[in-house]
Design brief:
There is one protein chain. By secondary structure, the chain is α/β, with parallel strands linked by helices. Helix content is about 40%, strand content about 15%. It contains 15 helices and 14 strands. The protein has helices at about 15-25, 40-45, 50-65, 130-145, 160-175, 190-200, 215-225, 240-250, 270-285, 305-310, 340-355, 360-370, 370-400, 425-435, 465-479; strands at about 65-70, 75, 185-190, 210-215, 230-235, 240, 255, 285-290, 315-320, 335, 405, 415-420, 440, 455. The strands form three sheets. It has an eight-stranded mixed β-sheet, with helices on both faces. A four-stranded antiparallel β-sheet has the order 11-12-14-13, covered by helices on one side.
Length: about 475
Amino acid sequence: MSWADIYPWRRGGAADVRRQVREAILSGALRPGTRLPPTRVLAAELGVARATIVLAYEQLLAEGYLAARAGSGTYVASDLSSVVDAPAAPPARSGPAPEPPARTATYADAFGGAPFADERPFNTGRTLLDAAAQAAWTRAGRRALRAFGPEHLGYGDPCGDPELRALIAAYLAAARGVRCGPEQVIVTSGAQHALDLVTRILLGPGTPVWVEDPGYGWTLQALLAGQAQVHPVPVDREGLVVAEGVAAAPRARAVFVTPSHQYPLGVPLSMARRLELLAWARQTGAWVVEDDYQSEFRYAGAPLTALQGLDGGERVLYVGTFNKAIFPGLRLGYLVAPHALLPALGNARQTIDRQPPTLTQAMVAGFMREGDFAAHVRRRRIAYRAQRDALVGELRAALGDVLEVEAPGQGMHLVAHLKDGRCDIEAERAAAEAGVIVRAVSRLYREAPPRPGLILGFSGFPVAAMRPAVARLAAALRA
């Protein structure tokens, strides 16, 4: 397809057509190398004689705007240096642009450092697909396209495809002990989308909430955008310190927590703390928002039951995603909500972006229905554990005197704390100059005293790539 085929051509004589083509080229609407419609096609579209279009094209060819290619057609010239006309100057500004509102500062970069799209080791949030998963995903896509039906040609349920919601509910019951019906599942574009929905419904300006300190930067951003009153609660080796939260804000209306694999420190919320947190929420009428971060990838022992499965009063909102379990470009997640909140959340989902993409949902449903998702998760656990162990071994061998490294029991990244107390932001910058991506932990603290450390992702990088990357990191830190 050529953009010239959909350009809004207007009827006129040869001079009018010539002027339209010339203006489209000079304005940049038609770029060099763009193929123009054949003369018969454009003449039929404008309702003029073909000779009119031929004459306009011939004039433009002579002036250097167009170039003819034998057997192919007429194109915008690749080299316009011989054209006499200069592009029109942009219109002068009528005055200064408006000042951005103060709340735009809320949407600052939550993490800093390299963009998450950077493919270099050891960026976080990256996954690997083996040949079996790629083949299964291709089959799922073909099945979805072969079964393409009228459900894709109109609007669907804002909360998601019924089959996919039923599959998600069954998966969560088996894997995480979540107790819900398919009607409680809302399909989202990921965990961040789910958290945004929750903040819109549960919170208003000045609503007191707990967040983990350190914690996930974009959860904090969503809360600040909703003008919530944020109370950072410190995290220790057992996870969120509930007693500290009670002391700071005993009447908070909600708590946002990553109990399976705390971000960024990686510790699980102990069973004692889980029960303590649910008891506090029950006594105060607070909501618990459980981001079950990277719960699929646990490398030792059985995972602790999700908070949602432990709670019997429908006060927990459970957030999960396929974007980490399969691949981030998928952009599909889910929210399991209490019945009382379903109407409002469904309407909010519809207000924001109407509904999830039907074809993507059909592919994921097929991937789950055929058993490919469960098999993929099993294989990734084995592979990611090997990648984790390889990275821990390389870091200890090359930087054991500089970094304190522990192998996390779950997840897709590890934290290496700096032994000598040096600035982790400076270490992050030095590593980036050496071509290695690490993230400073200190950026994710709010009020608790930060312990300098570096976050390294291991899930997106084969073992063979780790040794040279660690060598570059070691040279950068020692320099």
